[in-house]
Amino acid sequence: QVHLVESGGGLGQAGDSLRLSCAASTVTFSTGVLAWFRQAPGKEREFVASITWKRGRIYYQDSVKGRFTISRDNATNTVYLQMNSLKPEDTAIYYCAVGTTILRLTNEDEYEYWGQGTQVTVSS
Q1: Close Cβ partners of 35 (under 8 Å, ≥ 6 residues apart)
Q2: So what's the pLDDT on residue 6?
């Protein structure tokens, strides 16, 4: 069973930077996708970014392009989300997810494993 643990969340002001980490307690999945989702108060969970485990192909939600960077370290089964130029609308609980058979990257229902989430709060 895959266990995911997020860390790195916290408080910040508009324009600040934060780096989130997600450690997976398993060996690398050759066909897996690692993704970050977030859920703001009163809103549904939404896709943020994803990266394929094997080749590192990346996809971002439009609202974070140019500000966020997703990356992974295959040797340690860790995925990162570097968040720069933070905005108040980035405030949410951020979740790490892993899927081994993904047809549509933004479809949360296709991801098999989820972390507990880490809170990111950005003030203006």
Answers
A1: 47, 48, 49, 50, 51, 96, 97, 98, 99, 105, 111
A2: 93
